[in-house]
Amino acid sequence: MKFQFPKGFYWGAATSAHQVEGGNHNDWSEWEKENAERLAKEAEKKFSHLKNWQEIKEQAQNPQNYISGRACDHYNRFEEDFDIAKSLSHNVHRFSIEWSRIEPEEGKFNEIEIEHYRNVIKALRGRDIEPFVTLWHWTIPIWMRDKGGVINKYFPNYFSRYAERMAQELPDVKFWITLNEPTAVISMAYGIGEWPPQRRNPLAALKVYKTLARSHNDAFKKIHTVSPKANVGFVNILSFIEPYKKNSILDKLTARITKYFSNEKFLNLTKWNHDFLAVDYYFHNRLQFPGKMKNENKKVSDMGWELYPEGIYYVLKDLKKCEKPIYITENGLADAGDIHREWFIKETLKNVYKAIQEGVDVRGYFYWSLLDNFEWDKGFWPRFGLVEIDYKTMERKIRPSAYEYAKIIKNNGF
Ligand code: FCB
After folding, report:
1. Beta bridge partners of 93
2. Which among 11, 39, 45, 216 is placed 20 to 30 Å from 352, CA to CA?
3. DSSP element (H, E) containing 14
4. What residues have CB less than 8 Å from 115, skipping those under 6 apart?
């Protein structure tokens, strides 16, 4: 075997509550209802350049596509879904707890929903699958939204109270992830202003760095007070950022500044508070001054995202200096035809392997996602799953690439 991974390596996939569960009521579900018509109307302008436009057109122009609704009905079918993960040899699984279920009204915690997640964890453990539990994968309860959401300076207090409660209720969780990709929310909701609450304002964005960093720091401490042995971290979305022209000072400056805000600032603000680093890798940004993307795009996903698996090597090498265990908590592509997925997973893993050989302490890989799911403001047409979902019948169908990934897992390499 050419690429043999370290003993005990974690292999699995990730999901998030709002994208798979169905039946959620939170800031996003409300926003979806208010924006579905608009998003359907804008689809042609946004997506008609994609090579698969003819195939996705009907769905992308249908307002229903933008309503998460019952999603994959994973809330009711998690046992069946974990059977599939088990059959594919996964030994770890990342999922998120939906805060709006746990605390639907301020300060009132719902015992039935807590029990639900206890059962989810039990179901994983019963299959020898280690749970990685995310506390915040972007959605917030309506009452918190009404207070301004993540920009409220007391957001950290509310969030860490919820985190502490979860640590008390689920004491056997070994791996906690406080926040998912804070910088994605900062840029999409407060920088570009496309996601709820659609507030395009650089000063607001800077403020949210602070409230979210404090949320992580406070939650980190509270979880440790309850469970001193737990491993706590947050998920950082890290892109491979480079200047378009290596000898252009302006391109280099553009890349440097972008890298600071997207990869480094949040990590600096939370510096002492991680037991591990969690990395989601999707993007390569080759930047020309003052900010134009000049990627080659030799291969792209169904969403037009460049497939650039070698970028993960550079991202991992950059983290070596932190001297913490690293988990790749998301990596994947939208590929309805399952054409590139096997190639993409293998190429990514070759680059992860290379980083490990050079001393980077990578301990796990989670493919995004176990299931096709609801992709935020894009809706249901992007197909990220190892497992295909028929949204009419809710039937699950394992894609060929998932079996290839299973072979890698069984051999702990390839
Ligand atoms: C990540 C998100 C995840 C999913 C993938 C495609 O940024 O964490 O929820 O949408 O992108």
Report:
1. 13, 131
2. 216
3. strand 10-14
4. none
- pLDDT-derived band at 54 (thresholds 50, 70, 90) equals very high
- pLDDT, one tens digit per residue, over 326-381 is 999 999 999 999 999 999 999 999 999 999 999 999 999 999 999 999 999 999 99
Q: Which atom of ligand 1 is nearest to the CA of 235?
A: 8
Whose C-alpha lies nearest to ligand 1, atom 4?
A: 375
Tell me which residues are annotated as active site.
330
Distance of CA 13 to the CA centre of its chain: 11
> Which domains are present in the chain?
10-411 (3.20.20.80)
Closest approach atom of ligand 1 to CA 19? 9
With the most atoms of ligand 1 within 8 angstroms of its CB, the residue from 135, 302, 372, 376 to mutate is 376
Question: Tell me, what's the pLDDT at 183?
Answer: 98
pLDDT score at 109? 98
Q: What pTM value is reported for the model?
A: 0.98
User: Which residues on neighbouring strands pair with residue 397, listed in sequence order?
Assistant: 388
